[in-house]
Amino acid sequence: MNNPPILDPKVRAALVAYLLPWADDELILGHRDSEWTGFAPILEEDLAFSSIAQDELGHAALIYHLVADLTGENPDHLALRRPANAYRHAPLVERPNGDWAYTIARHYLYDLADSARLEVLSGSSYGPLAGIARKMAREEHYHRLHGEMWWERLAAGTNESRERLAAAARAVTPLVGAVLGGTDGQEILVAERILPGIPAGLAADWRDLARPFLIALDPELGRLPDEAPEPRELRPASADFLALHAEMTMVSASGLGERW
User: Fold this and answer.
1) At 41, is the secondary structure helix, strand, or coil?
2) Rounded Cα–Cα distance for residues 181 and 199 (Å)
């Protein structure tokens, strides 16, 4: 990724605008996942969520390096040296973990959205992007299997576990669409086949994947609106993210370590 294909400046700017929110999603969700280390319900899940968190952080690193190749910026600075109000992540990933059911609902529904995105990006005309999408898809396949296992386990468990999962799904589902929202100049990427899909199409793919699981849990949850997600726009940093940002950038900001 050190010598990316030369792109028209407008195409390059549009691609950076698309990649950065995605990288931020992966970075922040990875940090949230890592918070379960030592606190998960069983030892196996301490290990599983630690591994998933490492994968998400690794995926973030791949995307930040792709951005850095396009802009000449330092990928480590992109990840951990920006001010909190410069991040472009979706609100879903910054929310505190809550109980186990909330984490599983977010984990699985986000992974379904990511599956829709990665399948499309694997066919990108921009070789470096297609390459990392294919690599990520292989690892995300196991995340999805893990999420599906826990979703079904909670749904088929006790009345309490099922209701907790349903409550979590009601809270999480409205937030997932923003993960697939459009970015500045995205129509250029579609025209160039760098992004072989549009936000409405990706959102429809996610709905097709998620709807059977949501309906089985609660028929009302399956009534997902058939509309394009809101665009990915810069927004003020929330109290939740300010606290998380201070924690995840602590070492880098101290000067003790430049690399993450």
Assistant:
1) coil
2) 6
Query: What are the tens digits of pLDDT across the range 216-226?
Result: 999 999 888 77
Tokens at residue 76, please?
A: 């480590």
Written as six digits, the tokens of 212 are 């059977």
* Cα(260)–Cα(254) distance, integer angstroms: 13
From residue 23, give the alpha-carbon distance in Å to each of 27, 41, 95, 230: 6, 29, 17, 18
Q: Which DSSP category does 178 fall into? A: G
CA angle 28, 106, 134 (to 5 degrees): 65
Inter-residue contact 37 to 56 (CB < 8 Å)? no
Residue partners of 41: CB distance under 8 A and separation at least 6: 100
Rg of the chain in Å (alpha carbons): 18
Residue for token pair 């030892």: 43
- Closest to 248 in 3D by CA, of 37, 35, 16: 35
Which tens digits make up the pLDDT trace of 119-172?
A: 999 999 999 999 999 999 999 999 999 999 999 999 999 999 999 999 999 999
Is 9-241 a CATH 2.60.40.10 domain? Answer: no
pTM of the complete model beyond 0.85: yes
- The one-letter amino acid at 214: L
Cβ-contact 15, 66 below 8 angstroms: no
Which residue ranges make up each domain of the chain? 9-241
Question: Per the structure block, which two tokens stand in for 89?
Answer: 């992540």
The residue type of 1 is: M
- Count of CB atoms situated within 10 Å of the CB of 249: 17
